[in-house]
Protein: PPM1H phosphatase
Amino acid sequence: RAIIIRNGEVIPMSSEFTPETERQRLQYLAYMQPHLLGNEFTHLEFPRRVQRKEVGKRMLYRDFNMTGWAYKTIEEDDLKFPLIYGEGKKARVMATIGVTRGLGDHDLKVHDSNIYIKPFLSSSPEVRVYDLLQYEHGPDDVLILATDGLWDVLLNEEVAEAVTNFLPNCDPDDPHRYTLAAQDLVMRARGVLKDRGWRISNDRLGSGDDISVYVIPL
Structure:
C-alpha cells in the first residue's frame, strides 16, 4: 500500500488487490474459460463450503455479474471447491494463493494437480499520478510504501500520526531521518515481546508478516 502524508493529511495512493476485491474479475474469467478450473473448482461463490447433503436444497450464492446474493438450488457441480475461498487475509484463489496480481509464477499449480493458477494472476498494475509541482511540500511531507506486514496492524491514520510526530524530533539536516522514521514504523508494527506474544499499542497483536517500509520525502 502507498499513502502520501501532506501537511498531516493522508492521501491514499493505491488500493489492495485481493481475492475478495477482484472476485468478479476472477469469476468472469472462470465463467468464460471453464477449462481453467480443471473440473475441480466452481466459479460460483457460496457463504460457506457446500456439503453433499445440501444437494437439492436452496442456498445463497454469487456469480460474476452479481454484487449481492441470490438463492439457487444446489447441484452436483456446486460441490466442487470454490474458486475463491475464505475471508480477509485467509481468502485464497484456488485454495492456494492470497494475491491476484503479480509477475512470474508461471509454473505455479494447485497442490497435487496440473491446474495452473497463473491465468488468474493479472500482471496489469494500478497506476496513479501525483503531480509534485501542483503542491508545496515541506520536509515532513512524505510518500510511504509498505508491505501488508505494516498495514495489517496499523491504520493509515496511525501511520500518519507516527510519522508526523517522529520527523519533527529529528535533526532536519540529518539525511537518515526518513530511514529512522521507516524503522520506527517497523518497530511499531512488530511490537514488543510480552508473555502473550508480540504486542503493539492497546495490547493488540503485533504483525506476524514480513514488514518492509519506505519513507520517501516529497
Remarks:
- The radius of gyration is 22 Å.
